Amino acid sequence: MIKIIINGKQIKVQPDTTILDAARRNDIYIPTICDDPRLEPYGGCRLCLVQIKGMPRLVSACTTPVTEGMEVETTNDQIERQRRTIVELLLSDHPNDCMVCEKAGDCTLQELAYFYDLRANRFYGERRQYTKKDLNPFIQRDMEKCILCGKCVRVCEEVQGVGAIDISSRGFTAKVTPPFEKDLDCEFCGQCVSLCPTGALMGKEALGRGRQKDVRKVETICPYCGCGCNLTLHVNRDEVVSVSSRPDTVNEGWLCVKGRFGYNFIKSPDRLKTPLIKKDGVFVEASWDEAFQYVADRLIAIKEKNGPDAIAGLSSARCTNEENYLFQKFIRAGIGTNNVDHCARY
Amino acid sequence: MKKDISIKVCMGTGGIAAGGVEVMSSFEKALAGAGIKAAVQKNCSMHKVGCRGFCARDVLVDVTINGTKATYQYIKADMVERIVADHIVGGAPVDEWLVKDDYHTFHDKQVKVVLSDCGEVDPEDIDSYISRGGYEATKKVLTTMTPQETIDVIKASGLRGRGGAGFPTGVKWDMAIKAPGPVKYLICNADEGDPGAFMDRSVVEGNPHAVLEGMIIGAYAIGAPYGYVYIRAEYPLAVERLHLAIKQAKERGFLGKKILGKDLDFDIKVKLGAGAFVCGEETALIASIEGKRGQPRAKPPFPVQKGLWGYPTIINNVETLANVPYIMRKGAAWYAGMGTEKSKGTKVFALTGKILNSGLIEVPMGIPLKEVIYDIGGGIEGGRKLKAVQTGGPSGGCIPSSMADTTLDYESLGKVGSIMGSGGMVVLDETDCMVNIAKYFLEFTKSESCGKCIPCRVGTKRLLEILTRITEGKGREGDIDLLETLSSDVKTSSLCGLGQSAPNPVLSTIRYYRDEYEAHIRDKRCPAGVCKDLLTYSIIAEACKGCTACTRVCPTGAITGEKKKPHVLNQDLCIKCGACFETCKFKAIRKV
Question: What is the ipTM of this complex?
Answer without folding.
Answer: 0.90
